[in-house]
Structures are given as structure tokens and as C-alpha cells.
């Protein structure tokens, strides 16, 4: 009996960390869990699906067969072929890899710029903060998608430029979020202790303060990925994003729109996969936001 009481009291003393508590809350959110499973499945298919299908039928995303243009689904071509006789399933899976890569890398660029900019503005405050935030306000007033179109039209189009262009316009909101977090953290005792021991300002910002803002940053990054994927699809649909013959969801949608009356699956397949992925990412992002929200964590 005493041993049981001791075990119960020990369990009562043990607490859960922020991340453990957030994980438990996230698991209780069914939509977020389903969204995470779907995203994981799409990533798995993007990484390995094209390889398996190519091993099965011998077609790559560039292989053309002009004698079987816009063919209906068969055992060899489960989703049929496009206007040049290329296997639609292989192009869809490979295009998923490109679109997800654009979303992930561009979001990482956005996070790197936004976290650094917002943290520096919030920590130093005063005139530096005023000047940096006015720059953000000016950039907010500009039509950012037009800026991306101009960049892609002026410079040589490449995946690297697309990563930088999309990432460089998506950091403004994150900079404001991080600035607000830093303003509430910079006068905490652990920051004062770091200053007292002679730690430099940049070390305080990036070693002590920024790690404590990871919750909102992760949530924002999760919700930014679908936005960037949608922007890439729009640009590729206009012919300014990923360049053929390399496929992406936007390229496939653009090609499918030209043949929708003859072979609707050429448009329906990439549009459906993109919609499912974007919905799942948004559900996952909403779940992470609820799990990491300090106002609801104790509910």
C-alpha cells in the first residue's frame, strides 16, 4: 500500500515539458493527425513512388511515346498519358517531389530571414526597431506576387531563383511574430543573467531568445508551406515557375487545362493531389497552433 502511494505521489510530481504537452494535445486532434498521416504518405510517394513506377513500366518523366498520346488508363499507364505520350503517374509523382521541395526550401528561406530580422528588431528596440518595421510596412504595401514575376522575368529562370524569390516575399509576417515574442522575452531573468556574464548581443538573440520562439515559428512555417506551393503552382501555370519538361503540380495543371476536353484526368489528377495535400498541411498547421497555444495549453 505504501509503495502504491509512493508511486502515485511520484507520478503527481512529475510534470510534462512544453513539447510533451503539445504532443499529447496534438494527438487528440483527429484532423491534425489525419493531416499529418496524409502529408507523410504524399512525401513517401514523392520520394519513392516514381522510382517504383519507373521500375515497373520503364518510363521516366521525360519518356515520350507519340503513338499513345492522351491514352486512357491502362495496366501499363495507370493514369494514362499526356499530350506527348508521357506517363502521367510518373510525372505526377515526380512533380509532387518538385512542388514539395519548392514549398519546403522556400519556407526555410522565409524562416531564416523572418526570424533573424524580427529577433534583431525586437531585441534592440528604439530607432532600430522603428526603422526595420517601417521597411516591413513598405514591403507589405507592394504587390509581392508582381515582385516575384518581375524577378523571374528579368533573371534566368531556375529552381534556385524560384526558391529565393518565393522565400524572400514570405518572411514579413513571421518577422512581426518573432519581434513580438522577443519583446516579451528580452527582459526575462535568463536574458539578464546572460548579459551579466558578458554574453554578446547576437549570442543572446540566437542562443537564448530565438529557441524560446520556436513554437510560433513552427506553426507559421507549417502554414506557409501550402501557401508557397500554391504560389509556385500559379507561377508555373503562367509559365514563370518550374520549366518544362520538369514537372510540378502547376506545370501539370497548365498542361492538363489544354487537354481537359479530351482527357480530363490530365488536369483532375494533379489538381486533386494538390488540393488534398494543401488541406492536410492546413489541418496539421491548425493542430500545431492549438497544441502550442499557451492560452489553451492548460484546458
Low-pLDDT residue spans:
1-14
Count of β-strands: 0
The end-to-end distance, rounded to whole angstroms, is 32 Å
Mean pLDDT: 84
Describe the 3D structure:
With 299 residues, the protein is mainly α. The chain has one domain: MetI-like fold. Helices cover 72% and strands 0% of the residues. It has 13 helices and no strands. α2 packs across α13, α4 runs antiparallel to α5 and α9 packs antiparallel against α10. The radius of gyration is 24 Å and the shape is elongated. The two termini are 32 Å apart. The N terminus is likely disordered.
Task: Give keywords.
299 residues; elongated; MetI-like fold; 13 helices; disordered N terminus
Write the SSE topology:
Blueprint: H1 2-13, H2 18-27, H3 30-57, H4 88-124, H5 126-141, H6 144-154, H7 159-167, H8 172-185, H9 189-196, H10 201-209, H11 214-237, H12 249-258, H13 265-292
Short account of what is shown:
Helices cover 72% and strands 0% of the residues. It has helices spanning 2-13, 18-27, 30-57, 88-124, 126-141, 144-154, 159-167, 172-185, 189-196, 201-209, 214-237, 249-258, 265-292.
Amino acid at each position: 500500500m505504501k509503495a502504491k502511494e509512493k508511486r502515485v505521489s511520484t507520478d503527481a510530481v512529475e510534470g510534462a515539458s512544453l513539447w510533451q504537452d503539445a504532443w499529447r494535445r496534438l494527438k487528440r486532434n483527429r484532423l491534425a493527425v489525419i493531416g499529418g498521416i496524409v502529408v507523410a504518405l504524399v512525401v513517401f510517394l514523392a520520394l519513392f513512388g516514381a522510382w517504383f513506377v519507373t521500375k515497373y513500366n520503364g518510363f521516366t518523366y521525360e519518356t515520350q511515346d507519340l503513338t499513345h498520346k492522351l491514352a486512357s488508363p491502362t495496366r501499363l499507364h495507370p493514369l494514362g498519358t499526356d499530350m506527348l505520350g508521357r506517363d502521367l503517374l510518373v510525372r505526377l509523382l515526380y512533380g509532387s517531389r518538385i512542388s514539395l521541395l519548392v514549398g519546403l526550401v522556400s519556407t526555410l528561406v522565409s524562416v531564416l530571414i523572418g526570424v533573424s530580422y524580427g529577433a534583431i528588431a525586437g531585441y534592440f528596440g528604439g530607432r532600430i526597431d522603428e526603422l526595420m518595421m517601417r521597411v516591413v510596412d513598405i514591403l507589405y504595401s507592394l504587390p509581392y506576387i508582381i515582385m516575384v514575376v518581375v524577378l523571374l522575368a528579368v533573371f534566368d529562370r531556375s529552381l534556385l531563383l524560384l526558391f529565393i524569390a518565393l522565400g524572400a516575399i514570405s518572411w514579413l509576417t513571421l518577422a512581426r511574430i518573432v519581434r513580438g515574442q522577443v519583446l516579451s522575452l528580452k527582459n526575462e531573468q535568463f536574458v539578464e543573467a546572460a548579459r551579466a556574464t558578458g554574453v554578446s548581443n547576437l549570442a543572446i538573440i540566437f542562443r537564448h531568445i530565438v529557441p524560446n520562439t520556436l513554437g510560433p515559428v513552427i506553426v507559421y512555417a507549417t502554414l506557409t508551406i501550402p501557401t508557397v506551393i500554391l504560389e509556385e503552382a500559379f507561377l508555373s501555370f503562367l509559365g514563370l515557375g518550374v520549366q518544362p519538361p520538369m514537372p510540378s503540380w502547376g506545370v501539370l495543371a497548365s498542361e492538363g487545362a489544354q487537354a481537359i476536353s479530351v482527357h480530363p484526368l490530365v488536369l483532375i489528377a494533379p489538381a486533386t493531389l494538390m488540393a488534398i495535400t494543401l488541406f492536410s498541411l492546413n489541418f496539421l498547421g491548425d493542430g500545431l497552433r492549438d497544441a502550442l497555444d499557451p492560452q489553451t495549453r492548460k484546458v
